[in-house]
Amino acid sequence: MRQKNKWVLTTSLIASLVLGLTGCGGQDEARQTPKVAYASVVSFGDSLSDPGAYQVGPVAQLGGGLFTVNGIAGKAGSEPVPSYSWAQLVSAAAIGQVSCAARTGGFGVAVSDIAACTNYAQGGSRVTNPIGTGHAADGSAALTEPIVTQVANYLSRNNGVFTGYELVTVQGGANELFAQAGILNAAATNAGTSAFSTKLVELLVADATDPQTAALAIATAMATESNRTGNTPNTVVFAAVTAAASQPGNAAVGQSVVYEPIVAAATDAGNLAAAQFIANTGAPNAIAAMVTAAAQLSDSVNNMINKGAKRVVVTNLPDVSLTPYALGTIKGSDNSTQQLVLAMTRAFNERLQVGLTGLPNVLFVDVFTENQRQIANPAQFGLSNVTGMACNLNYPNNAFATDGVPSSGSSLVCNTNNLIAGDTSRFLFADSVHPTPYGHKLLAQLVTKELILAGWL
Q1: How many other C-beta atoms lie within 10 A of the C-beta of residue 232?
Q2: What whole-number distance in Å separates Cα of residue 26 and Cα of residue 417?
Q3: φ and ψ at residue 169, rounded to 5 degrees
Q4: Whole-angstrom distance, CA of residue 14 vs CA of residue 41
Q5: I need a surface site. Which of 7, 257, 304, 324 has the fewest CB within 10 A?
Q6: HSE-CB of 41 using CA atoms within 13 angstroms
Q7: Is the Cβ–Cβ distance between 393 and 46 less than 8 Å?
């Protein structure tokens, strides 16, 4: 079904992938050896490597399927840059054909195994945890089969071994960061909400005749309102103030001049508790989880080698702190969340490299440093924009967006019909974290260059 994307490798394609931009660096001819002949390119990873695992059913009907700008047709290496992931482009450079999804499905479509395809990457996938970004256990959304499962699926198809004639690409870790960010945010919110509620009740009962009884009444009112469908933080506060003012000796607290300073003080207490939780518990836990995930990924690579893989390319995380996702967390002079994202990214990359050091048959590609170079010197890489997003991610332009929530859509259903106005062909980002086809081309150029320098291509 997806074998239509077979393109003969040409000199112009190699030139485009390797020598197309001045920012990619030169070749060291002394280190080159004759090109290795590969039987296939096998890829494991997440949305960055995904060649269209979800290009089925409603996603396909919406003109989507890859986590980039979809719908730009053409051969690999042509202009305008066609809609392929970097892993597909590396496949084109290595064996002369763009890779395709080995397993497709999700979003209400049953999983299909595509025997002729060898790219197992799926958007949302984590390293070992099957509950990835956007996962739905009933198959109504993303599959997010983790990397260890992707590897197992490949081995089950191939008598439990790698032949040694595959070029294997491995990339992952971003969804570990997003998962940990979600866990941290939820826990910090709980800590802040608890401190806010405690301080609010404490201050609201200060003048009550029976503070203990008043505190119980306020807590009950807040719990009741919190459980009501359609509640908001303001309605919960209003319920607390109303209950407090109904208590004997406490009528004055119902006046705005009295309760507004109380609410402000409780808010300060909640914000402080949330910040302290992040600094003392949440951030260290998130960073530790990233280290664990990196160790699991390096263990998986080692398992591939033990199963016969001879050439495994592993990329680290790009600098996630420089994505629109992280830049959007900066509030005035407060960039603490962005810095935490950077710390989590570095922790993952450092542990991954340590875990791969000394392993035979592994080529480690430093995407992080190259990504920083691209953003620091965009013109050198032919980039026109390294902070904005090419896709219009607002409702109703993007079918996955939530009405009233800005930029809440996904590049999975972004195509040439729902981009922002203007020329976006040289944007780095399609959405808040995923690259445009041009961004994928830059990444493919980096990997292809390193393959040549290592004598692997």
Answers
A1: 9
A2: 37
A3: -115, 135
A4: 16
A5: 257
A6: 28
A7: no
Nearest to 364 by CA among 376, 378, 374, 350: 350
Domain ranges for the chain, please list them.
Answer: 11-172+366-453, 185-276
Whole-number Cα distances in Å, 452 to 26, 209, 358: 11, 81, 20
Q: What is the DSSP string of 54-72?
A: T-SHHHHHTT--SSS-B--
Rounded to whole angstroms, the Cα distance separating 110 from 122 reads: 15
Beta strands in 96-159 (DSSP E): 103-106, 109-113
What stretch of H or E contains 284? helix 283-306
Amino acid type, 100: C
Q: What is the pLDDT along the chain (457 residues), one digit of tens a residue?
A: 333 333 333 333 443 444 343 344 333 433 444 478 999 999 999 999 999 999 999 999 999 999 999 999 999 999 999 999 999 999 999 999 999 999 999 999 999 999 999 999 999 999 999 999 999 999 999 999 999 999 999 999 999 999 999 999 999 999 999 999 999 999 999 999 999 999 999 999 999 999 999 999 999 999 999 999 999 999 999 999 999 999 999 999 999 999 999 999 999 999 999 999 999 999 999 999 999 999 999 999 999 999 999 999 999 999 999 999 999 999 999 999 999 999 999 999 999 999 999 998 999 999 999 999 999 999 999 999 999 999 999 999 999 999 999 999 999 999 999 999 999 999 999 999 999 999 999 999 999 999 999 999 9
DSSP 361-380: TEEEE-HHHHHHHHHHSGGG
Cβ atoms of residues 348 and 290 within 8 Å: yes
Cα distances (Å, whole numbers) of residue 206 to 130, 217, 248, 249: 50, 14, 12, 10
End-to-end CA distance of the chain: 28
Contact predicate 46/123, CB 8 Å = yes
Dist CA 307 CA 298 (whole Å): 14
Label residue 10 exposed, middle or buried (CB < 10 Å: 0-12, 13-18, 19+). middle
What does the block give as tokens for 11? 């000199």
CB atoms within 10 A of CB 31: 10
Q: Please state the pTM of the whole predicted model.
A: 0.91
φ, ψ for residue 125 (rounded to 5)? -70, 145
Whether 117 contacts 2, CB under 8 Å: yes
Let me know if 305 is exposed, middle or buried by CB neighbors in 10 A (0-12, 13-18, 19+).
middle
